[in-house]
Amino acid sequence: MTGITQVYDRYQVSWQPPPAECNKRLHLSFKTEAFAAAFSGYMRHLAATLLLVSGSLHAGAQTFFTSTELGGGIGCSQYFGDLNDRYGFKTIHPAATLYMRKHLTQYISMRVGAYYTNVSYSDKLNNDVFQRQRNLDFSSHIAELSVQAEFNFFKFVTGDPYHRITPYLTGGFGVFQYDPYTMLNGTKYMLRPLGTEGQYLGGYDDRKYSNIAACVPIGVGGKFWLKPGVNLTLEISDRLTLTDYLDDVSTTYVGQDRFPLNPQQPAYLLQDRSTENGGTTVLGRKGKQRGNSSTKDQYLMCTFTISWHFVTYRCPSFMEHDMISTY
């Protein structure tokens, strides 16, 4: 390419094309700037992707507590009934429980529990003259399976410092197995097979009873989470049973003469024990009151328990339905 020369008045102006080497440098400069811009955009895209993946991994690593927990505990029990109709606490026995609790909401829970305890009482512990003369006693184990609802006064969420404690009411339905017995001259006798109120003598079939009965637990308690996922509970609940033969005492005497004189089945001795302590007045006359059939027997349980929630790593999107965040 040749130069251009032009004369303007007295001045001469000329232009020469740049050397080929300058064109190469200029072309390289354009390429360098384009690469830098593309690389910068790529790095920004890569950084954003890494941040997104990191956030997803962090969210996926969060743990949550399911609304189901398992627990167990110990406590005590007391029997109330025909032999303890004034609600004395003179024969308290140890008790134990295992249970599973399901939180339906932050205010309502359902609980399935298994309980074991013993109950007993003796007329010797009473101050009433008639009861002391009656001189009956019993003992029995109790194995119970029950379903109970819990109604919290306040919102309760394990791990949430603002919802850490609440009192609650509880009620439900259960079944329990029992089998009253007594001791005579150092020997243990099961009372139900003896028919101490004439159950097997004819004419008293309505007095027969099973060793399995239903109960209605009602009570109050308090919950407190000790640490996230670990809850403590203190509960007092009375079992209103649907039997009046937890203590083998309910209605009237049928008369000692109705029972056979059999040392292996000493019902004639155990149905009326009023003369064992040297008394001369025999209470066991036919039709005389032996118990109070107008009320059912009860047993009260007080338990202190600890429970643990299950931990899960499921997606937090399900938290509102079945999860409690570990915070």
Gist of the model:
The chain has 327 residues and is of the alpha+beta class.
Assembly level = single chain
Biggest sheet details: 8 strands, antiparallel, barrel
> What's the pLDDT, averaged over the residues?
85
Distance between the termini: 77 Å
Low-pLDDT windows of residues: 7-11, 55-60, 315-319
CATH topology grouping of the largest domain? Porin
Q: How do the SSEs run, as a string of H and E?
A: EEHEEEHEEEEEEHEHE
Pairing-aware structural class of the strands and helices?
Answer: alpha+beta
CA radius of gyration: 42 Å
**What is the CATH architecture annotation of the largest domain?**
Beta Barrel
Number of helices: 4
Biggest sheet: strand arrangement: 3-4-5-6-7-10-11-12
Number of strands: 13
Tell me, briefly, the overall form. elongated
What is the number of independent domains?
2
Portion of residues in helices?
10-25%
* The CATH C-level class name of the largest domain: Mainly Beta
Strand content: 35-45%
Summarize the SSE layout with pairings:
Elements: E1 4-8, E2 11-15, H1 20-61, E3 64-80, E4 93-103, E5 108-122, H2 129-134, E6 137-152, E7 165-178, E8 181-184, E9 187-190, E10 212-227, E11 230-241, H3 267-270, E12 298-312, H4 319-322, E13 323-325
Antiparallel strand pairs: 1-2, 3-4, 3-12, 3-13, 4-5, 5-6, 6-7, 7-10, 8-9, 10-11, 11-12
